[in-house]
Amino acid sequence: MDRRSVRTQARPEFDQFVADAADGLLRSAYLITWDLADAEDLVQECLLKVARRWPRVRKMAHPAAYARTVLVHLSLDEGKRRSRRRSELRPEVGGALEEREDGSAVHLFGRVEANTDMLRVLGELPPRQRVALVLRYFEDLSEAEVAKAMGCSVGTVKSTTSRALDHLRNAIERSNVAAAQTAQANGNSNGNSNMQAGTRHSEGSFLP
Questions:
Q1: Of 63, 82, 188, 206, which residue is most buried, by most CB within 10 angstroms?
Q2: Chain mean position to CA 205
Q3: Of 191 and 37, the one with more pLDDT
Q4: How far apart are CA 122 and CA 134, in angstroms?
Q5: How many CB atoms lie within 10 A of CB 132?
Q6: C-alpha distances out from residue 162 to 130, 132, 133, 185, 192, Å
């Protein structure tokens, strides 16, 4: 089979691969970059690299896993230079978290998803920590799979994830304290207003 025939056969396969993988790659890229335009650019660059290597990639057992690894490496390389608009993430992106076996992480992420301020905190994590959390808890990958995608050891994945969760946990605790203080202040304000209203009503009862 000549080279032109191989290219002719490979193009439909690549098109089908893009159709199957693009949505998942875009979702991962969005969670990593926290910006839709950046995510789309990242996926486009990822697919371009995969296309250039498609004759080899198409023979792999898991081409999608390879594409995800390319996406992760691109995101880490560009992470410090990309502008972030982290407040755009919607809570529903983490729906599969309830199926995780790590109960403490599920509970933590559940609280994060319910709090817009904490979503911003999640977006402000260093790129490697955010990538590790996205792959581990949103993409449901094992620690070994995350390590392979990020090009590091399982131990590094564990420590990176642990630091990220600690950061979120501390942020949540600070947010809860601030919320409690605000609620207390509002309660005191309402109580003072009710007391003043009651005093005025009592004084008015003695008027003719």
A1: 63
A2: 60
A3: 37
A4: 10
A5: 30
A6: 11, 10, 9, 35, 45
